Amino acid sequence: MDFTHHVLTYLLVMMACASSSSFNKRPNILIILVDDFGFADMSGNWSPQTVPSNTPYLESLADNGIRFVDFHAAASVCTPSRAALLTGRLGKRTGVTRNFSPFSVGGLPTNETTFAETFKSAGYRTGMVGKWHLGITKEFHPNSRGFDFYYGLPYSNDMGCSDDPGHNIPIGNPCPKDRLGEEDPTYPGVPLYYNESIVAQPVNQTSLSKRYAEMAVKFIKNEQDDKPFLLYVALTHMHVPLLYMDHFKNKSLNKGIYGDTLLEMDNTVQTIVSAVKEIGQEKNTLVWVAGDNGPWEAKCELGGDPSPFIGVWQKLEGGGGSTSKMTVWEGGHRVPAAVYWPGTIKGGLISEVTTSMLDIYPTIASLANVTLPGDRIYDGKDITDHLLGKPFPKDRVLYHPNSGALGSVPGDFGAVRVGDYKAVYFTGGIADCRGKLGKAESHHPPLIFNVREDPMESNPLDPGSKLYQSIYAGMKEAMIDINASLKNDNRTVADYTEDPNAKPCCNPHHVVCRCQD
Ligand SMILES: *[C@@H]1O[C@H](CO)[C@@H](O)[C@H](O)[C@H]1NC(C)=O
Ligand SMILES: *[C@@H]1O[C@H](CO)[C@@H](O)[C@H](O)[C@H]1NC(C)=O
Ligand SMILES: *[C@@H]1O[C@H](CO)[C@@H](O)[C@H](O)[C@H]1NC(C)=O
Ligand SMILES: *[C@@H]1O[C@H](CO)[C@@H](O)[C@H](O)[C@H]1NC(C)=O
Ligand SMILES: *[C@@H]1O[C@H](CO)[C@@H](O)[C@H](O)[C@H]1NC(C)=O
Ligand SMILES: *[C@@H]1O[C@H](CO)[C@@H](O)[C@H](O)[C@H]1NC(C)=O
Ligand SMILES: *[C@@H]1O[C@H](CO)[C@@H](O)[C@H](O)[C@H]1NC(C)=O
Q1: pLDDT digits over 115-133, tens only?
Q2: Count of beta carbons in the 10 Å neighbourhood of residue 308
Q3: What is the phi/psi pair of residue 73, to 5°?
Q4: What domains lie within the chain, and their CATH numbers?
Q5: Ligand 6 atom nearest to CA at 482
Q6: 110 CA to middle of ligand 7, Å?
């Protein structure tokens, strides 16, 4: 009797496993990119004991998965960062080294291959919700770059006017209501696309995060043909202007605009990830959350903490300039990241290994058994073993491109990371939020920091020391390596031509192209 009971239990367990949709199936991939997300915006990254969290849900994802504390953006401004995420290649290879504008004719070159294109060919259902910023004309639109479904903004939410002017510096950018007697705004109203159609212009940015969550949930729940899905969500938060639903007003712990926006962002992520659970796919879905680059120092005016990386830059920037977005300082490059995959990835892991947004494409491809195009060189690495808890080499080399600083060519490497050390070749040239511009300066020999011990970059090594000499030799080698790799690669040139006629406009009879859904 007892024996039969055990056998029965055993059989039931076996059947439960076999019928579960997570059994022997390629995983769903959910990538969530948070705009201008500073390292310490995820408070657990900085000091879990003392800093109150305005991102409680993200903290729980990280605590039940892997939290990366030395994870880097591939560039410190939107367009090149996103191009690198989608291709696994640096801007020097794809040609995408600076932002596209609302008048850009070109985009991410079409002979570069996005992960959406690869996954779609491999039978995945592909969707994107949010900010694209890799070209607006048909050829470069997300629907032409591998996404079956698209809902979002073609570029940043400050690249145009709005009917709900938000928190920006200077405050807001209101759209004129009528055509007559108006000044011509620089850009048209910020447009919202559903696939290839503009459905609202200017978009209501107050409710945008809510709509993103709804559309992402709709995509996730629209299961078809038992196909796995790949969904890329590129949130508007924390990019200025900051706007959010009244529901979150004064709900954050510091009751400021910045904290409230963080809280709405966190809630948006929760709504999206919960949909995966609701359809019973939580154990078959890899969720990867990351920032696209460091924060803009809007924080200093909007009630957030200033950038936590406050080291030597203060002196170098002569009281002006920035350590955040667009710089090669840690504040520009080191971003929050976490991977959550219950049942496959053990919870509670904190990874101090140097990793990059460039690693996402090779890693998800490997997990999904999808092959990357072989006729080019990738800067990203497959870190599957690391996700699964195996040791990973610590001598990673990363190149940080100039992402908009004056006085240096965009895409050229302003800093190089080898293991624990980082050489900084270029400083200054980026204004802080009060408009102060640090002096653009080249450093030959470079400043070298041990960013493992000194993440604030406060104490450059003494150039006369033996340690400096040996580290510097390694840095020079790394530069020679990348030069050789670039020379041997199939590289692309991106078209940065601008034409006012290329702008997205759903109503050419109105000065800001106004139309509403
Ligand atoms: C967007 O495209 C997808 C895939 O073609 C389609 O299923 C969906 O209905 C389209 N949506 C709209 C609003 O055109
Ligand atoms: C934008 O959406 C919010 C929230 O739904 C609403 O309160 C506000 O009136 C809308 N703005 C405009 C200009 O319609
Ligand atoms: C938020 O708090 C501030 C300061 O305490 C107050 O002036 C404001 O009215 C509050 N806003 C809301 C929506 O509760
Ligand atoms: C991966 O794909 C290859 C070739 O298509 C196939 O032989 C192999 O079984 C697949 N592996 C897994 C784990 O699905
Ligand atoms: C570049 O493309 C050519 C032609 O497609 C190919 O033969 C070559 O192997 C590629 N180079 C690299 C580095 O993959
Ligand atoms: C690498 O190439 C760049 C650009 O061509 C050049 O300025 C630099 O000197 C090269 N560095 C090394 C170490 O060869
Ligand atoms: C893309 O096209 C350009 C121009 O035809 C070529 O030089 C480059 O090698 C191509 N890049 C890739 C990745 O194939």
Answers
A1: 999 999 999 999 999 999 9
A2: 20
A3: -70, 160
A4: 26-395+495-502 (3.40.720.10)
A5: 1
A6: 9
